[in-house]
Amino acid sequence: MKRIGGAVVLALLVAGATSADESPVKAGEKQFTLGLVQQQLRVGMSQTELAAAIGSPNMVTRSGDGREAWAYDKVASETTHDGWRIGGGALGTASGASAGLIALPFGSREKSHTRTSQRTLTIVVRFTTAGVVESFSYHASQF
To answer: Do strands 98-103 and 68-86 pair parallel, antiparallel, or not at all (unpaired)?
Structure first.
């Protein structure tokens, strides 16, 4: 009887396990933030230096006189989930030639909170005809 009780407790623990929705970050990859842009982006940098500092742009345009503009447009969503959950189910057992199923005597109960937020960051960098940063602007929002 103690083994079954322990199995029921284990099933409760597994059924109640929840975690936040997380996106994996690749090794060596910088997180693209307004702070990184403010720290790294400077008037007079070359296109190569800018790409090494904050990465490749989402869009590149070139005017008739040969001036380029790079646009970075990043959106991040974050969902957090906290709370508890108990789910009903069954445990299977096998003993010799006979197999059985033990029904757990409870239903599903949930209490949880989910929060979702989004951040946007748009940067426009304008270059001279020589390919150095002439000016830049940015807009950041969080909601």
So the answer is: unpaired
Tell me if 117 sits within 8 A of 77, measured CB to CB.
Answer: yes
Instruction: Give tens-digit pLDDT for 81-137.
Output: 776 655 555 444 455 555 555 555 555 566 678 889 998 999 999 999 999 999 999
- How far apart (Å, rounded) are the C-alpha atoms in residues 32 and 38? 11
Residue 126 CA to chain centroid, in angstroms? Answer: 30
Strand order in the sheet with 59-62: 59-62, 68-86, 109-127, 133-142
Backbone angles phi, psi at 104, to 5 degrees: -85, 135
The residue extents of the domains of the chain are: 2-18+32-82+89-142
